[in-house]
Automatic annotation (TrEMBL):
Transmembrane segments: none annotated. The keyword Hydrolase applies. Zn(2+) binds at residues 117, 124, 184. It catalyses: D-alanyl-D-alanine + H2O = 2 D-alanine. The record marks 90 as: Transition state stabilizer. It comes from the Bacteria. HAMAP family: A_A_dipeptidase. The active site is at residue 181. Its EC number is 3.4.13.22. Its cofactor is Zn(2+). Keywords: Cell wall biogenesis/degradation, Dipeptidase, Hydrolase, Metal-binding, Metalloprotease, Protease, Zinc. It comes from Flavobacterium frigidarium. This is D-alanyl-D-alanine dipeptidase. Catalyzes hydrolysis of the D-alanyl-D-alanine dipeptide.
Length: 203
């Protein structure tokens, strides 16, 4: 069995190589559902770092996070929407690389502390309709300004209600929102999971 505890360096994109899937096992979301849309910004240079920091776009997260995400996505789909993912689990080495590019805790979590993305319990998401069209959320992903905050209400009414809809379903599915970033959600139980440096294979 591939270890997912601590700073394991082993590739773990192949679910079949894991003997037993438990809640904290890292798995690839696409192996459990084909109902998600992907726009993994850090696998491109279309992000605030202006740098590609992932070798390829994969959404690895702990199995319990996958289960909660699928629950949320099913609820969104009943209303005509789907989750689009911007970021999932982020290995600690990638966090360090991001920190080297932008060493400011306002924009990048300090790798010495680690973020919930490093623990496999956080996702950055938005909603699209079944045609893939973006649901207006007021700002782009990783917009660093007050307009991205859940507390900022000087926005069009449809944006406010879209953010509320996202938050309501995610919260009901076991996630916690983050005040200053409308796109960030983390599983409530993720904080006690260890930071990881496990990597996925890019084939
Ligand atoms: Zn995030």
């Amino acid at each position: 069995m591939i270890s997912t505890i601590g700073y394991c360096q082993a590739p773990l994109n192949k679910v079949e190589t894991v003997d037993e899937i438990i809640d904290t096992t890292f798995v690839n979301l696409k192996d459990y559902s084909s109902d998600f849309i992907y726009d993994m910004r850090y696998a491109t240079d279309n992000n605030f770092l202006k740098a590609q920091v992932y070798d390829c776009a994969e959404c690895l997260i702990r199995y319990k996070t996958v289960k909660a995400l699928i629950k949320a996505n099913n609820a969104f789909m009943r209303k005509g929407f789907k989750i689009k993912l911007y970021d999932c689990y982020r290995p600690l080495d990638i966090q360090k690389r991001m920190w080297t590019i932008v060493s400011n805790p306002k924009y990048v979590a300090d790798p010495s502390k680690g973020s919930i993305h490093n623990r496999g319990g956080a996702v950055d998401i938005t909603l699209v309709n079944f045609d893939g069209e973006a649901v207006p959320m007021g700002t782009d992903f990783d917009f660093f300004g007050i307009e991205a905050s859940h507390k900022y209400i000087n926005l069009p009414t449809d944006v406010i209600s879209n953010r509320k809809f996202l938050k309501k379903v995610m919260t009901a599915s076991g996630f916690k929102s983050f005040d200053s970033e409308w796109w960030h959600y983390n599983l409530k139980s993720a904080l006690k999971d260890p930071v990881s440096n496990a990597k996925w294979d890019c084939n």
